[in-house]
Amino acid sequence: MKRWLALGVIMLMSIVVVAYETNASNRNFFLPDPLGGIKIVIDAGHGGQDGGASKGEVIEKDITLTIAQHVEKQLKKKGATVIMTRTKDGDVIDEHASSEKYGTLRERKKQDIFLRKDIVEKEKPDLFITIHANAIPETKWRGAQVFYHKEGHAESELLAKSIQESIRTNLKNTDREALSIKQIYLLKKAEVPAALVETGFISNDEERALLTDKKYQEKMGDAIVEGIEAYLLAKIE
Predict the structure, then answer these.
(1) CA–CA gap between residue 127 and residue 140 (Å, rounded)
(2) What is the pLDDT of residue 134?
(3) In sequence order, which ranges of 78-142 are alpha helices (DSSP H)?
(4) pLDDT tops 50 at residue 18
(5) Helix or strand run (H / E) with residue 42
(6) Nearest-CA neighbor of 145 among 173, 103, 106?
(7) In angstroms, what CA-CA distances link 65 with 36, 150, 199?
(8) Number of other CB atoms surrounding residue 4 within 10 Å
(9) Can you tell me the mean pLDDT for 61-69?
(10) Which backbone phi and psi does 207 adopt, to 5 degrees?
């Protein structure tokens, strides 16, 4: 009996050692999820017939979806609950209200924005992030920039500045600062801290090449996540 008891203890200890060595490099094995209990709505800008900004075959809606999906993945790894306004090429109407029909693209785009707002209102998240890419006629302009609405939630400015600082620190290719903006309906209407991330200029040749590179897209997504986490940790402190 004692021999079997001793063998049982040895086997148990072996399992513990294997589990420890397997998970020792993963801090979540020892610590609670850093974003556990946090809900975030991530919005990939545009979609479907509304491609957003473009240059040749490079279209904004594809860039925003890829970066948004990486942000979703990394936030979930940290324990956050993530709601995506869209997960496919189509717009939000395609995904959430496909039976709705509109006479013009202009009307569809307007209703699509309203639907994104409705998703935020329904989900009642802790944060709302919408991801975009920029384009203007002049090719010299570049650099990711984060925006907030001064008439939106009081903490949106802090959130935007935290994400902007993370992008500056991690990507080291922009000196831009977070700015307030008046025209963005979603930022104004969100009843939670909200920020719009313009990930760069498709109209700039160098930045367009970066924004279509998978590794850079992941770096941008990681920087956004780090900025979100820094904002939330600052609130706790």
Answers:
(1) 33
(2) 95
(3) 92-96, 105-123
(4) no
(5) strand 39-44
(6) 173
(7) 24, 26, 12
(8) 8
(9) 98
(10) -75, -30
